[in-house]
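Practice problem 4.
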């Protein structure tokens, strides 16, 4: 049997979910056996994922690959339809990578370990399904089902205000999901043919007014998950109460679901509406960058400070998506991948620090770098990655968005100049609050009262290994971005061409990618 032709996407989605069903049968009293079981399942699935990518994915093909379609409920035309392209395959790989590391990060969990690892494996398959399904109704179902494990992990293993944070999370995301359902049904039943197939829906000729309504609804739904100001307030509360593995999944994967959906549905299926909404996305992106950076300054809780930092960095995704250039769109994709790695590393370091100091308040920390050299080094490198130090993935992604937007001929010079200046302000604010955070955690006077109660023990090999696994791709992509960009370039260039064709003044021109191609004339949008 030729294993290269197996239904790999279905296997990758269902294997961790089916494996999770066997967890209650594992004889285990202290959770040590079940955590190894979950880690091995995660590693096996990640190997399946890499094998499927290596053997069956063509980097030069912008269309869907690894396509599988099986009739599920013919009465309502619901199909198990999955496939990946450049917009989804990098995020599928990111999901497998981050979830496997998050499973290893969950080693200290002792409360109901079987339930915890059951939910982790269920999330593994559910998150990949969100990026892989190609049926609108099925997308809504997996989007909703994926929220349940997150809610339970927050409400059972969170901090003192975990029920409030979990309830707020589910209300925000479930409320946004209503817009997905309404939009999916509207698009499916519009016209002469009723279908939930995403490719068939994208081919329908929706009138512009309907596109605008659908776009606005999807923007609200996916803006909650990204998150976009002012729909972001659930995220600091969720991060403020989550454990380290939940942090890694929230920052590394869940936020990317919103960004991916904006690429796939808002831009890919509603290009005419995207041309009209693009300046709004740019403004919202700038607001995200500056507002969240300034708010991060004021946070004395370490988790909330990093949470607002995540919101700030995701603003670059909105600007890149609205740039109408190959470089800007590519930068937005790279920013999602880069932030997934960097956000997971920072929140893992928050968990490591809390496990030792038993406090999240910066006012109670100080001087811990003197006792914990490895923690000192890991905090420093991860923070440098977040502030976009040259040579790391964050720098490349943000630079691509900067140059992509600066060279865009979809906006006039004045609008571009204002946005670039404001983006620059956000970039300047980031190292200020991150370096001041490092100073308060690692340097200065040691809190002797705190360290007497909780002796400071340096990072163990497991923790160093997790951070090393995250830093290798962060630095690798920073030094050689093509490692990642070649996976999605064909698809993002196809998307950019589609979006430019929706703007009359750009329809017959190619996407500018060099400084000398900056246009100084007033455009159709943003002018």
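Answer key:
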């Amino acid at each position: 049997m030729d294993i290269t032709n197996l239904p790999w996407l279905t296997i990758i989605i269902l294997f961790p979910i089916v494996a999770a069903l066997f967890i209650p049968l594992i004889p285990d009293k202290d959770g040590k056996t079940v955590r190894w079981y979950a880690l091995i399942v995660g590693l096996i699935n990640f190997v399946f994922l890499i094998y499927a990518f290596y053997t069956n994915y063509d980097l030069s093909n912008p269309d869907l690959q690894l396509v599988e379609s099986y009739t599920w409920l013919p009465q309502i035309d619901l199909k198990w339809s999955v496939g990946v392209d450049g917009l989804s395959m990098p995020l599928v790989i990111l999901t497998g990578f981050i979830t496997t590391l998050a499973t290893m990060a969950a080693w200290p969990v002792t409360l109901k370990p079987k339930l915890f690892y059951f939910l982790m494996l269920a999330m593994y398959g559910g998150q990949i399904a969100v990026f892989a399904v190609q049926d609108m109704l099925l997308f809504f179902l997996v989007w909703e089902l994926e929220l349940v494990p997150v809610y339970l992990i927050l409400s059972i293993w969170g901090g003192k205000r975990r029920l409030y944070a979990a309830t707020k999370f589910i209300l925000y995301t479930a409320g946004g999901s209503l817009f997905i359902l309404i939009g999916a049904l509207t698009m499916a039943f519009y016209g002469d043919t009723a279908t939930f197939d995403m490719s068939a829906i994208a081919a329908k000729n929706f009138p512009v007014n309907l596109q605008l309504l659908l776009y606005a609804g999807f923007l609200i739904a996916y803006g909650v998950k990204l998150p976009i100001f002012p729909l972001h307030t659930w995220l600091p509360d969720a991060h403020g109460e989550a454990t380290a593995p939940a942090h890694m999944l929230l920052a590394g994967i869940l936020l990317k679901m919103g960004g991916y959906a904006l690429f796939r549905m808002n831009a890919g299926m509603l290009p005419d509406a995207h041309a009209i909404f693009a300046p709004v996305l740019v403004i919202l992106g700038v607001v995200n960058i500056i507002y969240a950076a300034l708010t991060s300054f004021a946070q004395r809780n370490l988790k909330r400070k990093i949470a607002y930092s995540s919101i700030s960095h995701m603003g670059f995704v909105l600007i890149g998506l609205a740039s109408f250039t190959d470089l800007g769109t590519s930068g937005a994709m790279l920013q999602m991948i880069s932030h997934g790695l960097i956000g997971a590393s920072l929140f893992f370091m928050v968990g490591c620090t809390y496990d030792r100091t038993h406090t999240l308040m910066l006012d109670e920390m100080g001087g811990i770098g003197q006792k914990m050299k490895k923690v000192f080094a890991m905090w420093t490198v991860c923070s440098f990655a977040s502030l976009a130090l040259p040579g790391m993935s964050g720098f490349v992604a943000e630079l691509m968005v900067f140059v992509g937007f600066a060279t865009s001929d979809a906006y006039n010079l004045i609008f571009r100049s204002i946005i670039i200046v404001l983006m620059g302000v956000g970039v300047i604010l980031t190292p200020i609050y991150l370096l001041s955070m490092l100073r308060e955690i690692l340097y200065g006077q040691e809190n002797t009262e705190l360290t007497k109660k909780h002796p400071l023990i340096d990072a163990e090999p497991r923790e160093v290994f997790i951070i090393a696994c995250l830093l290798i791709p962060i630095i690798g992509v920073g030094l050689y971005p093509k490692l990642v960009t070649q996976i999605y370039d064909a698809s993002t260039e196809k998307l950019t061409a589609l979006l430019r064709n929706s703007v009359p003044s750009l329809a017959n021109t190619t996407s500018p990618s060099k400084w000398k191609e900056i246009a100084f004339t007033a455009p159709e949008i943003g002018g």
